[in-house]
Design a protein that fits this description.
mainly alpha, 2 helices
């Protein structure tokens, strides 16, 4: 998922150092996709996660990535 679809430009002031909480939150969302999901269902679930994350970051441009909730 490290491609343009997943790319969100963030000012280094708000995206520096570790962001373990952000990573864990994304991982929890990814882990919630059922293992029985077919490829289309999994893809759609990932798109929903990406959009949720992107909207949260864009709506909170001065919040450090590690403190964003979505």
């Amino acid at each position: 998922m490290n491609d343009v679809l997943n790319g969100i430009p963030i000012n280094n002031l708000y995206h520096n150092g570790s962001h373990r909480n952000y990573n864990n939150l994304v991982l929890n969302y990814l882990n919630s996709i059922p293992s029985t999901a077919n490829a289309d269902q999994a893809y759609n679930a990932v798109i929903i996660i990406i959009n949720r994350v992107k909207n949260s970051i864009q709506n909170n441009p001065t919040t450090h990535v590690n403190n964003i909730s979505f």
